[in-house]
Amino acid sequence: MPVEPGEGLQLDAAALLQPIGHVDYAQSTDEQKYNLCGTFFKVQSCDDDWRLYAVATDGHRLAADSIPLSGDVRSIPASLAKGLIVSRKGIAELKKLSRKGILCLDISGNHLTVATETDKLTMRLVDGDFPDYQKIYPTTTGSVEVKRTPLRDSLERVSLFSPDKQRGVSLYFSEGEISFSAQHAEYGDATDRLAAGVECAPCTRRFSSGYLDQALSVWDSNFVEIKLGDELAPVLITPLGMQEPYAVIMPMRL
């Protein structure tokens, strides 16, 4: 039976589901960190514009994206202006909705209702405070421009020789290229090289290859930009020429 959209915040379904798909991989699976076991949504003003932000983090990496809002901002629920957390299960159900047409977000108490022309989904919101993700946005001093798919391929090949659970891979950034390496006591060493536009002093960073690959896998850009700071500072990764979506990833100790 068709469902009439409510009077809450109305959004294009495809527009909302796109940022969700860009961030949900970073949700925590640790139930003790219950406030991180979901995706955070918040409406904020940005350069005289109103945007709906979607953010997820597990404490080791963070992913964020946003979409512009149009129409009467008075229709924005107060809970979205403050920020709310939708659970992992709720996000999984949202991703099953059709990308066609308009959906309506309505908040009543601690419940979020999402209605489309054909479906209506009500879910309990996660209690708790989400970290101030804007404070996690890193200060960077150098940048690297590289093709996204070859970067994923190099990470996959070299990570096969990584002995640790996180499949750590060392990346050495030098003029014109990235050198990849991993060492395994039983299987030996693996190395690879990839051409890149490197604008920073030569340096090495070690990352979980899985964390890097998950961020890269949800974008469709040909090139990405990796912005570097101090040795143990998180790195910022975006599609080249874009501020969003973005991923913030903590490096591993060398």
Describe the 3D structure:
The chain is α+β, with helices and mostly antiparallel strands and 254 residues long. It folds into 2 domains: 9-135, DNA Polymerase III, Chain A, domain 2 (Roll), CATH 3.10.150.10; 137-249, DNA Polymerase III, Chain A, domain 2, CATH 3.10.150.10. The protein is built from 6 helices and 17 strands. It has helices spanning 13-23, 78-82, 88-94, 133-136, 148-159, 209-217, and strands at residues 9-12, 38-46, 49-57, 61-68, 84-87, 102-108, 111-115, 120-124, 142-147, 168-174, 177-184, 188-195, 197-199, 203-208, 223-228, 235-239, 246-249. The strands form 3 sheets. A 9-stranded antiparallel beta sheet has the order 5-2-3-4-17-16-15-9-13. The protein has a 4-stranded antiparallel beta sheet with strand order 1-6-7-8. The protein is elongated. The relative contact order is 0.16.
Secondary-structure blueprint of this entry?
Layout: E1 9-12, H1 13-23, E2 38-46, E3 49-57, E4 61-68, H2 78-82, E5 84-87, H3 88-94, E6 102-108, E7 111-115, E8 120-124, H4 133-136, E9 142-147, H5 148-159, E10 168-174, E11 177-184, E12 188-195, E13 197-199, E14 203-208, H6 209-217, E15 223-228, E16 235-239, E17 246-249
Antiparallel strand pairs: 1-6, 2-3, 2-5, 3-4, 4-17, 6-7, 7-8, 9-13, 9-15, 10-11, 10-14, 11-12, 15-16, 16-17
Helix pairs in contact: 5-6
